[in-house]
Design brief:
Layout: E1 8-14, H1 21-29, E2 36-43, H2 49-54, E3 59-64, H3 69-79, E4 84-87, E5 92-94, H4 98-104, E6 111-119, H5 126-137, H6 139-142, E7 152-154, E8 162-165, H7 166-171, H8 183-193, E9 197-208, H9 214-235, H10 244-261, H11 272-284, H12 287-310
Parallel strand pairs: 1-2, 1-4, 2-3, 6-9
Antiparallel strand pairs: 4-8, 5-9, 6-8, 7-9
Helix pairs in contact: 9-12, 11-12
Length: about 325
C-alpha cells in the first residue's frame, strides 16, 4: 500500500547565504509534515552561514570545499535517509504545507519528481518583487516559473522547489557536477528520457528572493544563457527557449535587409514594442509596471543571448558528468 506521507529528506545547498538563511531555517522548522529531516550542505561559505546552521540541533550539516550546487546536492542525496528527497535553496522560504503538497504528486509510480510555484517573500525588495512578477509573466516561454492553478505534467521543475524519489536519483546518479546553472534542467532531461514523468503542483509554494538590482538581474540572465548553450551543445534543441537565439538572428537579419532596401521603413522595426507593452499591460493592468517589464525584457534578451553566445557555465574541476 502506498504511503501518503513517505519520509522526506530536505537537502539545501548553501554558499554565503547569511542574509537569508535564518528565515529559511525558521520556515523549515514550522513545516506541517510527520516525517522529515533537514540537511544543509555548506559549499565553502566564507560568512557565518555554516555556523548559523550548526546552531540548530535538528539540522544535519555537511561541509565541503566550494564545488557548486550539483556537488553539494549529490552530497546531500548520499547522506539522506528519506524515500523522497526535496530540494530548496538558502534564499527561499517554504510554506507550511510545502512537503504535503509535494508528496501529493507522487500518486503514480512513474512520477519521478514533483515541483511547485514560487512567489515573492513578504519582505522582498521592490526590485526583487518586480523581477518575480516579470518572470511569472514570461513563464510560458521559459518554463522556469509556471502559470496556472492545476496540478499537471511538466518537463522541468527548478531545484529551488522540487522533490524526487531517491531511487530515481540513485538510478540516474544525481546531478551533473560540471554544470551551474542548468544542472537541474539537465537532471530532469535525463530522468524524462528514462520514461519517468514530472509533475507540477502550484499549491507547493516557496518564497524566493530575487536580485535586488538590475545589474544583479542582468548577471543572472547571462548565467542562464551560458548554461543553455552548454546544454544545447550536449543534447541539441530540447526546450522552447533554445530556439530564441535563432529567432533573434532571423529578426536582426530581416531588420538589416529591410533598412538596406528601404531606410525609411525603420518605424516598422519598432512594432514589437507596443505589442509587448500591450501583452504586459493585459497581465498587469498598470501602465508604469508594463514599462518596467519592457525594460526587464530588454535586459533579458541582451544578457541571455550574450551569455548564450559566450558560454562558460561549468565547474571545470568537477568530473561527475553525463551525456
Amino acid at each position: 500500500m502506498k504511503r501518503i506521507h513517505p519520509p522526506i529528506s530536505i537537502v539545501i545547498p548553501v554558499h554565503n547565504a547569511g542574509k537569508t538563511i535564518k528565515k529559511c531555517l525558521k520556515s523549515l522548522s514550522e513545516l506541517d509534515y510527520p516525517d522529515y529531516e533537514v540537511i544543509f550542505v555548506d559549499d565553502g561559505s566564507t560568512d557565518d552561514t555554516a555556523d548559523i546552521c550548526a546552531a540548530h540541533e535538528w539540522v544535519r550539516l555537511i561541509r565541503q570545499d566550494k564545488g557548486g550546487p550539483g556537488k553539494a546536492r549529490n552530497a546531500g542525496i548520499a547522506a539522506a535517509r528519506g524515500e523522497v528527497i526535496a530540494f530548496t535553496d538558502g534564499d527561499c522560504i517554504v510554506e507550511r504545507e510545502w512537503l504535503k503538497e509535494l508528496a501529493q504528486g507522487f500518486a503514480e509510480e512513474d512520477v519521478a519528481g514533483v515541483g511547485g510555484d514560487q512567489k515573492s517573500p513578504d519582505d522582498e525588495t521592490d526590485t526583487g518583487r518586480l523581477i518575480q512578477d516579470f518572470l511569472k509573466s514570461i513563464g510560458f516561454m521559459t518554463d522556469y516559473i509556471k502559470t496556472g492553478s492545476a496540478l499537471r505534467e511538466t518537463n522541468h521543475n527548478p531545484s529551488c522547489n522540487v522533490a524526487y524519489r531517491k531511487s530515481v536519483l540513485d538510478e540516474v546518479r544525481g546531478f551533473d557536477e560540471t554544470l551551474w546553472p542548468g544542472e537541474d534542467v539537465e537532471l530532469d532531461l535525463r530522468i524524462r528520457r528514462r520514461g519517468y514523468r514530472l509533475i507540477y503542483n502550484p499549491a507547493a509554494v516557496v518564497g524566493h528572493y530575487r536580485p535586488s538590482t538590475y545589474g544583479g538581474f542582468a548577471a543572472m540572465m547571462r548565467r542562464y544563457g551560458a548554461c543553455q548553450r552548454e546544454l544545447v551543445k550536449r543534447y541539441g534543441l530540447f526546450r522552447r527557449l533554445h530556439y530564441e537565439p535563432v529567432a533573434l538572428a532571423l529578426v536582426l537579419a530581416f531588420a538589416a535587409g529591410l533598412l538596406w532596401w528601404e531606410p525609411r521603413a525603420w518605424p516598422i522595426l519598432l512594432l514589437p514594442v507596443p505589442i509587448f507593452f500591450l501583452w504586459f499591460y493585459l497581465k498587469t493592468k498598470r501602465f508604469a509596471k508594463s514599462l518596467y517589464f519592457l525594460l526587464l525584457l530588454l535586459i533579458t534578451l541582451v544578457n541571455w543571448n550574450w551569455g548564450f553566445l559566450k558560454g562558460g557555465a561549468s565547474f571545470p574541476n568537477q568530473t561527475h558528468r553525463f551525456g
